[in-house]
């Protein structure tokens, strides 16, 4: 008799302005080799997730990425995209908007987030009704008074690596109770797939601790850093240009009024609360780019310049709640347009 296999189908709901993760388990009572091709299409009740009307509620789940489930026996995590009943992409399906069929784009996302203690409804380390010491001591810190929640963070990192996700690093962030992990893939769609699965694992592990994950870009008002999801990206042109003028033209393409609107619309709700010109951000109503400038909209890394303008760029505007699929889709569109005009 075959060993039953648990497949956790994960998808994004239709809530606006910020989508949430949903998932359910399919058990297969047959031999399973762990490949995407073996994962059947499935369906769900879209009327319960803001994705369909009750009278015609079936939405389809198309498997697009699979990895081991590090928290269950004989189990896999299956990232899916949502389709309408006729097989066309659902309007909530940001993955389907990415135009990178040749996988020329590489993406690295830096996911910041706050860990919330339900007893205080504030980030861990914030005393009930008060504030911890001002920020400054928490970034990349060590010590019980600074690096609050490390055991949880380490468990999440181990789970991601065991699952086979390319998480390249973690660190404590500037605000107390705020952390970051970095993911990378040599494909725009896979970068989004892996980021969503890593987010799923973060939230699921948080259940055990009784903590929730806050992706809102300004979890605490006042003189505290917001949370971003900086997008590092390159394509063949950026990786091989060897020419400052090429980089300038691509950066300038991000600064047109049409491009600014498209990108800001896709970069997460309430971003005006984070993009103030303070706390390592450019103001939401301004656009700039510069070498090693963390207060710019687009940062040209020093490593790119030192390599003779062969490398990547960082868009610092996406916020922590943004959909990495939609962020990647807009960046691919803008860079492709700029490259076509070179």
TrEMBL record:
Protein's UniProt keywords contain Cytoplasm: yes
Any GO MF annotation of the entry: ATP binding
Pfam families tied to this protein: Gln-synt_C, Gln-synt_N
Gene3D superfamilies linked: Glutamine synthetase, N-terminal domain, Glutamine synthetase/guanido kinase, catalytic domain
EC number in record: 6.3.1.2
SUPFAM superfamilies in the record: Glutamine synthetase, N-terminal domain, Glutamine synthetase/guanido kinase
Catalytic activity: L-glutamate + NH4(+) + ATP = L-glutamine + ADP + phosphate + H(+)
Origin: domain of life: Bacteria
Domain GS beta-grasp: 5-87
Cellular component, GO, one term: cytoplasm
Example GO biological process: glutamine biosynthetic process
Location of the protein in the cell: Cytoplasm
Keywords, ordered alphabetically: ATP-binding, Cytoplasm, Ligase, Nucleotide-binding
Domain GS catalytic: from-to ranges: 89-342
SMART domains: Gln-synt_C
Main location per the UniProt record: cytoplasm
Family: Belongs to the glutamine synthetase family.
Task performed by this protein: Catalyzes the ATP-dependent biosynthesis of glutamine from glutamate and ammonia.
Entry protein name: Glutamine synthetase
